[in-house]
Amino acid sequence: MASRAGAGTTPTVKRALSPRGMLGENRPTLWLAPLLAVVTLFYLYPAFEVLRYSVTNASLLDPDYEYTLETFTRVLSDPVLYKVIRTTAIFVIASIVLQLLLGLMIAVAVNRASKRRLPGMVFMRSLVLSAWVMPGVVIGIVWAIILNDADYGLANLLLGAVGLGSVQWLATPNTALMSVIIANVWRGTAFSMILQYAGLQSIPEELYEAAEVDGAGALQSFWYITLPQLRPILMINIILITISTLNTFDMILPLTGGGPGQATEVLALRTYNVIFQNFSLAGGAVLAVVMLAIAMALTLIYQRLLRSEGSL
Amino acid sequence: MKRWAAGPARVAIVLLVVFAVVGCGGGGGVLTLDRIGREDAPKTMTLQLNNSYTHQSSTPTWADGFERLFTKFAEDHPDWKLELKIVPDEQSTQAQARLLEQARAGRAPDCANVDSFVVAQFIEQDALQPMDEYFDQEEIDGLFPFVKDVVVGDDGKLYAYWWATDLRLLYRRSDLVPEAPRTWDELIRAAQEAEQKDSKVDGYLFNGGRWEGTVFDNLAHFWSQGGELVDGQGKPIFHEGQNREYMLNTMEFLKEAVDSGASPERVATIKDYSEFESAAQAGTVAMFQGGDFQYPPLEESLPPEEFKKWEVSFIPTMNQGDLQRTGTGGWTMGAFSDDPEKVEMCAEFTKEVYVGEGNQVTGQLPTNPEIFEQEKKFQDPIYDTFREGLKEGEARPGVPVYPEISNQLQIAIGTVLTGEATPEEALDEAADASMAAYEQQSN
């Protein structure tokens, strides 16, 4: 019996260990190995290092450090952190809402125009996308020129030309945050539009035709067909906008530097400041972990929402 | 294209690309994109430089000047090749933090540009090698006092050579403000009068945005009262005793400038010296606190009759008799290698490329009054004013906590200017955060 059992399993084991077995359709170990290696080396290891540094008191000024939870306590009990989180929340929520709405509006317009074969749509899409491919630093500098509070700032020049007075775009805490949101929305709307445009293209034309036959108007078609069909894309879009906006600091640095005062200092910028001004590697790592936790929590919430939408 | 012509055309394109790459630095000349000296030179030194101070500078005259100096240096030292690591100018803050980390791990370049305000940190961390035996004693003794305070360690050794500096001054349009204001009150009054004379102008502009320039420029007001940011151990004391009063006076003056209308609210957003030049070109500013380095661009950008209106003077103080202090910054060269031959080569490179010659190329002020007399560039009478101003120069304290003090004071000035906090509240918050950073760094 035993010898029969042994005789029965040996070929299976041999097959599993053979190159053919490992590369077989149901055993993709070897195929995945390079990907696993890349993910481990370039994603998991750095993430692990950030987690490790967050439970130390490491500084850029001293090679020695100890493992401690004190940095966590110190950073999390700093009242400034909650002010920064509030600013970040406003920045992220406003960016999500505006990027979704504007992206959807442009996507619907481009989709309609494409269906009617209007000329210049490829140019239009490329033009909108050019904002997205621009580096954040460049966008920050460009918007700093546009929103310069002086009378010779571009936006104020335009307002002056139509007889309106200059606006203090960056000089007060509220307008500065609004200006940073405008710049971020300008950058992110293009990507949002592309995603939603792709979603619109995948909606079967028959649905609209059936709705038309049933006497539905444009608004009803949009509400009962377009939006429900777009929900999965909208959810993915929200996740991507959230993550990219949470990580934004390259654009804010040249635009406001986080000021006036701390009015536009978001979590990512604070992390940068803690590491490069305060030389606190551990403090920066704690903030990075906080950002990671927020991004993961939001992603899980969105995913759950997406699943429940799917089940409907 | 015909098939018979396609092959040779491809070869020609490939050759063109190869020649272009070789011409741009891939070849065997004495100066390439990443090397000074011949490729086959027997001795090697690694060298980290800011982009501005190389032949790749974005300012064409600087690029040409350094190309000439680097080429001459390579020809004069045929046994050496200097392998270049060039740091983009906008990354210089991170690069300095990274350099310190590399030095601690023994991986720093042999020789590098070191920001003058972090030199003390590098000395404290034993990252820099003494260079004094490669400089004449007169070259060291002749340095401005504020320079020696930074680059000479407690043991009397020279740990870096500070070759380029700058200072802050008050620029004014003499048609609107004929007399240089001496005190803060006179400055505010003069600004208001200028605005009455020409409704288009802002009376007085200064850096008030979230960046280092805001603190660095306005520290002159604090220093002129006798204020000190840190004590001998590097502990923040700007919020204690007399210093507290001096710092509050400074913040109140800045707030008063905005509240009185002498300065527009938008000073809270100014985080770039070029803002002042733009305002001068647009004819919308009567006075601004800027750097000496803005004088040549102003001269170039303004029509001669407009430029003639501009004059510079020292920064006004709270009281008539106070010293007119000014913030000074700039760049040094430091050696990190343990190899004495490389330390010597670093000193030679500094002397032959940057000291005097480099000042001539960039127009950045020398750190030794004698060079003002020797170099042709500095014969314009305006440089006499700059040289005089440097006598009251004050460098930022080169202590590890300074960047955080600066960060906190930037926030404090911003919140005071926008009315979010009173000077007292802003100062208390800045003090708490700076002390927390200090204690954390001391542990």
From TrEMBL, chain B:
A Pfam family assignment: SBP_bac_8
GO biological process: maltodextrin transmembrane transport; maltose transport
Source organism of this protein record: uncultured Rubrobacteraceae bacterium
Cross-referenced SUPFAM superfamilies: Periplasmic binding protein-like II (SSF53850)
Similarity section: Belongs to the bacterial solute-binding protein 1 family.
Keywords, comma-separated and alphabetical: Signal, Transport
Keyword Transport: yes
Protein name stated in the entry: ABC transporter, substrate-binding protein (Cluster 1, maltose/g3p/polyamine/iron)
Recorded GO CC terms: ATP-binding cassette (ABC) transporter complex, substrate-binding subunit-containing
GO MF annotation terms: maltose binding
